[in-house]
Amino acid sequence: MQLLSPLSALFGLALPAIVLMYLFKRTYMDTEIASHMLWNRMLREQEANRPWQKLRTRPLMLLQLLAAAILVLALMQPYLTADSRSGSHTVIVLDRSASMTAAMPGGSSQGSMLAAAVQQAELWLSEQPKGELITLLVTGEQPRIILSKETDHELVLQQLKTITPDFGTQDNVAALSLADSLLANEQGGQILLLTDGRWQDADSVNLLTLHAKLEQFKPASPQAGSNNSAILYFGIHAAVGEDGKRAGIVTLRNDSLASKQLELAVYADKVAEPAAKKSVKLEAGGWTSVDINGLPEEASYYTAKISGVTDDYAADNIAYQFPSVSKAQQVLLATSGNLFLEKALQLAGVKTIKVDPAQYVPSKEHVKDIDWVIMDGDTVKLRTDKSWQELFASKPVWYIDHPEATQEETASPANSRVALAEHPVTAYLSFEDTHIGRVVKAKDAGTWGEAIVTYGGLPAIYAGSVQGRPQLRFTFDMQSSDLPLRPEFPVLIVQAADWMSGGSQAQLGTADAGSAFQLAFLNETAKAKWETIETIGGYSEKSLPDSNLTAALAAQEPAVAPAVPGLYRLIEQNAEGETIGQRMLAVTAASAESASMSATAEIKPIAAGSSESGQKQADAGLAAGSVETANAANAFAVWLALALLMLMLVEWEVYRRGNAG
Question: Where are its TM segments located (predicted)?
């Protein structure tokens, strides 16, 4: 029990005053006696003069003291605190992103972050009172409600144990916004967030204003780094060497705080023995690109794996790649000089013919064997030249703008925030810590393509097609940015070159788990289905998205990749049920999940009632709390008043009967 007005206890001083009044009171009774000898006893009592003897057998005084005590207690306004959440509503938001498959500190024997989060939810449920309403919500590209306002906590626990990871892109802003909306206009509701805190969109989440209380449980304490190493990129050169072997390149990254000795192995098809292997030492936070040689030409796919050390996150330890069936590409590189770009194009297996745009005049004879063109520099003047006009109109073109030298309008990005669209050019990329100082406002780019990279609110890379030919435009100068110094730069150039070349024609390429992608079916295809070749980390795809293939085949809608990283085969059949085509798809976990392993973000949305959301909301919250407390105190006052009234009635009856003493 607590008191609203503890200072009112000073009124309790009236109780000893009542006792004193009885002590000083003299009472005499007229009594007929038979002998004066009885006065001796009276005299002895007066001589003794013991005041407390007057307090014996005083029922009226006791009643008055009790009434005064109750009155003082009422003035102190007592109230009881209790769990006001009984019967309230809690929305459990479970982060099931790919990073939650990481091992707990101490190794894989301790289980995954996701399993630990479920255990924490089980413990929390065991402490909740019966009648607590539970809504279970899981994260994903689109957050999903599993249970709504469920009072059966055993059922909630059963559903929690069946939740599997989502290796695709996560929209955590949508998840928390949905959870908050489910608690709108509900008193005492709260959001219980179970997450590892590795959120790439943490900055956006922290701009949200949540009206419900947010409580977070993290399976493990935030770490300064992680124990993760990753395959950042895996590529196979298009050209076959003179020895009849293929070559490739693997980019590795070490996210941990200590150096690592990694064992890299590349396998051809399902052969148990690696076709090539290397031992690589990586410093803490470092990265490196490793050349792989001696790969058999006839393989239909290649698998790169890293091992040798304890690794928290297994989803980025394996990568698949397919050989390109197209011939080595010849590219006309029109530039005044770009060493970083030239070296990266060599890694992509592209044969470049370098020319100076200020002096070179294209001719049909010279460019007939050119597959596509890279225009590194301002093209405004060249577009007025008839020879260049014909070249641009006949070949796929990759434009690289130079904002400092262009006649077009330019602008500086407002910040360094990056937004990536799903596209083969941006796969595996994050553009993390990249600085771009200025970009060209490409007003015509929207007519032929879409922005696949936006930097600081401005389009940085456009991709699309013109008359069926692929076209790229970088609205910034690579050499004026620090992008060429980043480990992602060769990956970007290799993927851009592969896309400009038409990609790996024999296979479907790579897609993020659960993502939508464009799929061109064979003309005679009447039915299509997925077949699992292998999956990573012991996870299995329970339900392959075959129904989506049927819809995509009928309405030419985007297909949806399987939800678990691994290697899959698309089987196409004709109307007679005969298999007419088989192509493979490599499914990877969202690259943002691997990038986020090196840092744990603070998830701290703005709370309605905090200073960030306005003092008025805070005052309203305090006022609401005061009203609830005052109501509790008023309820006590009613019972105390009734008790006091009953005592007054008893006191009157005692006085009426003459037992005042």
Answer: 6-24, 60-80
Whether residue 559 contacts residue 516, with contact meaning beta carbons closer than 8 Å, is answered with yes
Q: In the chain, which residues fall in CATH 2.60.40?
A: 504-588
Per-residue model confidence (pLDDT) at position 312: 81
Beta bridge partners of 245: 296
Options 2.60.40, 1.10.150, 3.30.200, 3.30.230; CATH of 504-588: 2.60.40
H helical segments located in 270-382: 339-347, 364-367
pTM of the model: 0.60
Tell the burial category of 211 from Cβ atoms under 10 Å away from its Cβ (0-12, 13-18, 19+).
Answer: middle
CATH 3.40.718.10 fits 89-224+599-608, yes or no: no
403 bridge partner residues: none
31 vs 159, which has greater pLDDT? 159
pLDDT confidence of residue 462:
95
- 584 by DSSP, 3-state: which? strand
| Superfamily for domain range 326-502 | Class I glutamine amidotransferase (GATase) domain (3.40.50.880)
Cβ–Cβ < 8 Å for 297, 237: no
| d(C-alpha 305, C-alpha 260), whole Å | 15
What does the pLDDT look like over 84-102, one tens digit per residue? Answer: 444 689 999 999 999 898 8
